Amino acid sequence: MTLNALAGAVSAAALLVAAPATLADHHGGGHSQMQSQQTVVDIAVGSSAHTTLVAAVTAAGLVETLSGPGPFTVFAPTNDAFAALRPGTVETLLQPANRAMLTKVLTAHVVAGRVAAADVIALIEAGNGSAEITTVSGDTLTASLRGDSVILTDESGGVATVVQADLNASNGVIHVTDAVSVPQ
Questions:
Q1: What is the pLDDT of residue 23?
Q2: pLDDT, tens digit, 9 for 90 and up, residues 59-74
Q3: Strands of the sheet with 72-77, listed across from one edge
Q4: What angle do CA 45, 132, 22 make, to 5 degrees?
Q5: String of b and e for 10-32 (b: at least 16 CB within 10 Å)?
Q6: For residue 152, with 0-12 CB atoms within 10 Å meaning exposed, 13-18 middle and 19 or more buried, which class applies?
Q7: What angle is formed at CA 30 by the lines to CA 54 and CA 34, rounded to 5 degrees?
């Protein structure tokens, strides 16, 4: 079962019963489950840990899309995650000539629909330890658990850990990651 299928087929209440512990509980995020009046873009703009992501979303021309009704689930790499890429990668991606490549990288971090941490955990449990998540770019992230942490493995074998979950927005939810997922 894919994450998109689960999000559409199962109510959030049923998932919370199946997996009562959220990632925020495990990582001290403690964010309210209440929906914010800010969009996913507004939340990212307000985060000092996501200035590189905001610059990339702006350069790719995705601000208007990600400020739209959605809903979107964004696996948001931190500035440190971008800094860990090969030297020059971010600068190269931000060049206007590389807008298509930048868009592909960014949309490999976005899932259509609002997918809370409990949804991801329930899907991993239903998949006997792993679950495939199809991103807006058409790429696949494989979610699994390592201890209490959700791990996302991209198609290139790169691994990102969700370090903060369930930052709720008016048009979706953000889960902060410690690495950039690289699409094929």
A1: 33
A2: 999 998 988 988 999 9
A3: 110-112, 72-77, 172-177, 159-169, 149-153, 140-146, 130-134
A4: 55
A5: beeeebbeebeebbbebbebebe
A6: buried
A7: 75
| Residue 86 Cα distances to 73, 81, 107, 139, angstroms | 26, 11, 20, 21
C-beta of residue 175 within 8 angstroms of C-beta of residue 135: no
Is the Cβ–Cβ distance between 29 and 173 less than 8 Å? no
Could you tell me the two tokens for 133? 């998540």
C-beta separation of 60 from 160 below 8 A: no
pLDDT in tens, 110-146: 999 999 999 999 999 999 999 999 999 999 999 999 9
Q: Tokens 């290139």: give the residue.
A: 156
* pLDDT, position 18: 28
What pLDDT score does 37 carry? Answer: 85
Predicted model pTM: 0.80
- Determine the 3-state secondary structure of 15 from DSSP: helix
